[in-house]
Amino acid sequence: MMTSATTNEPKRIHPHKFTMWVAMGSIVMAFAGLTSAYIVKKNQSSWLEFDLPIVFWYSTVVILVSSLTMYLATKAFKAREMGRYRTLMTVTAALGLLFIILQYMGFNDLEARSIALVGPKSNSAASFLFVITGLHMVHVLGGVIALLVMFIRAYSSKVKSYSSIPVEVAGTYWHFVDILWIYLFIFYNWIG
Amino acid sequence: MSNEAVVHAHGAVTTHEGHGDHHHEHHHHETFITKYVFSQDHKMIAKQFLITGMVWAVLGGLMSVLFRLQLGYPDATFPWLEDILGKWAKGGRITPEAYYALVTTHGTVLVFFVLTAGLSGTFANFLIPLQVGARDMASPFMNMLSYWFFFAASIVMLSSMFVETGPFSGGWTAYPPLSALGDASPGSKIGMDMWLISMALFVVSSLLGGLNYIATVLNMRTKGMSMTRMPLTIWALFFTAVLGVLSFPVLFSGFILLIFDRNFGTSFYLSDIFINGVGALPNEGGSAILYQHLFWFLGHPEVYIILLPAMGMVSEILSVNSRKPIFGYMAMIGSLFAIAILAFLVWAHHMFVTGLNPFLGSIFVLLTLLIAVPSAIKVFNWLTTLWRGNIRFTPGMMFAIGFVSLFISGGLTGIWLGNSALDIHLHDTYFVIAHFHIVMGVASMFGMFAGIYHWFPKMYGRYLNNTMGYIHFWVTIAGAYLIFWPMHYEGLAGMPRRYYDYSIWESFKQFAELNRFISTVAMIVFAVQLLFLFNFFYSIFKGRKVTTLNPWGATTLEWTTPIKPGHGNWVGEIPEVHRWAYDYGKDGKEFIAQTTPVGADESHH
Predict the structure, then answer these.
(1) For B287, nearest residue in chain A (alpha carbons)
(2) pLDDT-based confidence at A158, cuts 50/70/90?
(3) In this complex, do B138 and A131 lie within 8 Å of one another by their Cβ atoms?
(4) Does residue A28 form part of some domain?
(5) Chain A residues with CB inside 8 Å of B200's CB?
(6) Which of A76, A96, B107, B495 would bridge with B172, disulfide CB 3.0–4.6 Å?
(7) Chain B residues with CB inside 8 Å of A47's CB?
């Protein structure tokens, strides 16, 4: 009836890291809900077929590169190369912002082709693209804000932190929103 | 990762700097604000959830009394109603708009604010760190945020009752188009906007709380506390948190689409609608059923989010007060797990009459009826735990036994409703009302009462008054059956829910006296809850003092803390756990605490 599993094995995951993993599961459910709704809706009447904005390809490349810089920033932090760490964090945050701008340009592109995203003339095909992509942009923006907070912390002389946990947690989240976009991109193009 | 290190990690935000093992020997100045308001102590946050939940329970209960007044006395006028409700009760009779607003808000408030936040918010916060042996939650700061998001949600919901067009009145499920179109009804205007804001804040609160509960249970257990040594309360609260974390985001997605339909003219849920006085709407191609899928994908797990904490606490309380180990500990965990999985696979049984494909419906019937298996396992295990126990009928125990009774009564009618053919007749009738109020509403309230009576000594260092407790119990259980049992007959006769006045319907006139009877009992039961409230607040200050560490003779860790534990729970080191939580009546000993090392002469281990 009772197992005697030891609970104090040395390599236990940090609670904050673990919490981030559970939170990512939670976010996955939100997007799973939306993309399932997308599929359901697509199979009903009056679904508008249109080509995705080309700029989404560029934004995909941008977010992939930002994942790479995030990875390098984490490595730099662990090696205590704080100068390199700060540069890479700045680059990552800038790429995140660039990604958001590119997505916004994508929306403009659709509007220019008179595919309404919202409003009485909109079709839910475009509205879904807008809502799902927009929700993802909000998550990227959250990541950018987290990076900025850590960036400021790295400059602050009062707080000297040697723990790599916050950087790792932020990095995990960053890679997660990257993968989430790749999923959405594949979904829009080939699944949905 | 030790617990101490986590407390260290939060040194910057708490008033407690890390002191390692000398954690509680001296306090830094704790102001009123950091101790009672923006507290990061899980015990204080639990009490905040509890008392906020109680405020909502009173408001939500009062709403039911008001609309029961309309149902019981449809022809009477009560001038005092106009005094308190103003234009919502012109001439002393509740208006139809006010009636729908009351029904809707009663549902929203009881389901989300009382039985989700008030129940799992309270007991997950209070019991998880204490029973797994942790100084606090994985993230005390997020835990504090969780409460304050709930508080903000409460304020917004409360404010919505005072706007000119009234609170949302389209039913707690907020189905479009009523919820999506401001022109559809008075309650669909600003009241619905506030409902959505409030619920969005509530979802954030639930997610922050749920993340913390999961991380704490999996990562912060003390030495020796393996998963299968945890009390069943913790298992139940753990599965509750998993359900919440996986299902609330889907509801949130549904809400986002609803917000776009409401405010930005999209057509996710709307199609071909004509509103009187407004004309035809341009929206085309939307599907209102899509919202129902997204809503019930949360909505069904939600009923288990409400029920599982009650189940867990009842398991613990039954075992402690029967002085016997819980029967079938592993089966209890297995059935909790099965319920958690099945909870995600049955949502369409709320939608049998939406035009759902009958073949798909039959699959959902099968999956729904499968829930009877783990539910029955739990019931039999509770009954066999009681069997030949040396039962102490404390008020907590009475409510726990009452829970089992209600769960059986309400569960049996679930088998009727889970059947898609019967549901054609029973859907949206009082039979459904009776079913879910007994099995989920009142049963979970009983679980909550059981928990409050049982853990009150740990919360406040005093006991609740027993005499008032027994009166509270007997009137409430008798009242619960007297209110909801007759509703089954009304539902079988086809009486639909949510109607304003049944006396004008030839088929339902016959129930006039029965409705009056139900309303009368509802008022009596509500009055007895006020007695409980008095007992609660009186006992916080004047109750009989707890003088021993372990007043119930329980095995679990919370009773090894000081009578009034400070932030950090244990003075000195966190105790180590050597056995499961249910060593009652073993080897001639009445109980053996989890902290007692296994002796060489123990019979089996």
Answers:
(1) A41
(2) low
(3) no
(4) no
(5) none
(6) B107
(7) 285
- CATH number for the domain harbouring residue B494: 1.20.210.10
CATH at A104: 1.20.120.80
Residue A154 resides in a domain: yes
Q: B215 and A4 in contact by Cβ < 8 A?
A: no
Measure B283 CA to nearest chain A CA, in Å.
Answer: 6
Give the per-residue pLDDT at B35: 83
Residue of A nearest to B293 (CA): A37
For residue B472, being part of any structural domain is answered with yes
Interface residue B254 vs chain A (CB under 8 A): yes
Given a cut of 90, is residue B363 above it in pLDDT? yes
Q: Which pLDDT band holds residue B118 (cuts at 50, 70, 90)?
A: very high
ipTM entry: 0.90
Give the pLDDT score at B26: 47
Report if residue A124 sits inside a domain. Answer: yes
Query: Would the CB atoms of A8 and B246 count as touching at under 8 Å?
Result: no
Kindly report, residue by residue over B509-538, the tens digit of the pLDDT.
Answer: 999 999 999 999 999 999 999 999 999 999
- Which chain A residue shows the shortest CA-CA distance from B140? A16
DSSP B354-418: TT--HHHHHHHHHHHHHTHHHHHHHHHHHHHHHTT------HHHHHHHHHHHHHHHHHHHHHHHT
Place of tokens 């939580």: B581
CB pairs under 8 A between A and B: 144
Domain that holds residue B64: 3-13+37-278+285-591
Sort out which chain A residues have CB atoms less than 8 A from B252's CB and list them.
Answer: 30
- Please count the residues of chain B: 605
3-state secondary structure of B245: helix
Residue A180 placed within a domain: yes
> Count of domains in chain B?
1
Instruction: Give residue-wise pLDDT tens across range B577-587.
Output: 999 999 999 88
- Residue B28 maps to a domain: no
Helix segments in B116-171, DSSP class H: 122-132, 140-160
pLDDT the model gives residue B498: 93
Residue listed under structure tokens 């809502």: A131
Contact B257 A26 (CB under 8 A): no
Query: What's the pLDDT at A155?
Result: 75
Per-residue pLDDT of B457-470, as tens digits, reads: 999 999 999 999 99
Q: Quote the pLDDT of residue B605.
A: 60
Partners of residue B210 in chain A, C-beta under 8 Å: 22, 26
Identify the closest residue of chain A to B262 by CA–CA distance: A119
Structural domain range at position A134: 50-191
Do residues B410 and B461 touch, judged by C-beta distance below 8 A? no
Q: Which residue has the tokens 């205007």?
A: B189
What's the mean pLDDT when you consider all of chain A? 88
B327 touches chain A (CB under 8 A): no
Find out whether A137 and A62 touch, Cβ atoms under 8 Å: no
CA distance A133 to A114: 18
How do residues B280-334 score in pLDDT, each as one tens digit? 988 888 899 999 999 999 899 999 999 999 999 999 999 999 999 999 999 999 9
Contacts of A168 in chain B (CB under 8 A): none
Question: Does residue B172 form part of some domain?
Answer: yes
B348 touches chain A (CB under 8 A): no
C-alpha–C-alpha distance, residues B122 and B452, integer Å? 10
Q: How far apart are CA B308 and CA B371, in angstroms?
A: 13
Q: How confident is the model at residue B156 (pLDDT cuts 50, 70, 90)?
A: very high
Mean pLDDT (chain B) is 92
pLDDT over threshold 60, residue B348: yes
pLDDT at B108: 96
What is the 3-class SS of B415-430, one letter each residue? Answer: HHHCCHHHHHHHCCEH
Number of domains in chain A: 1
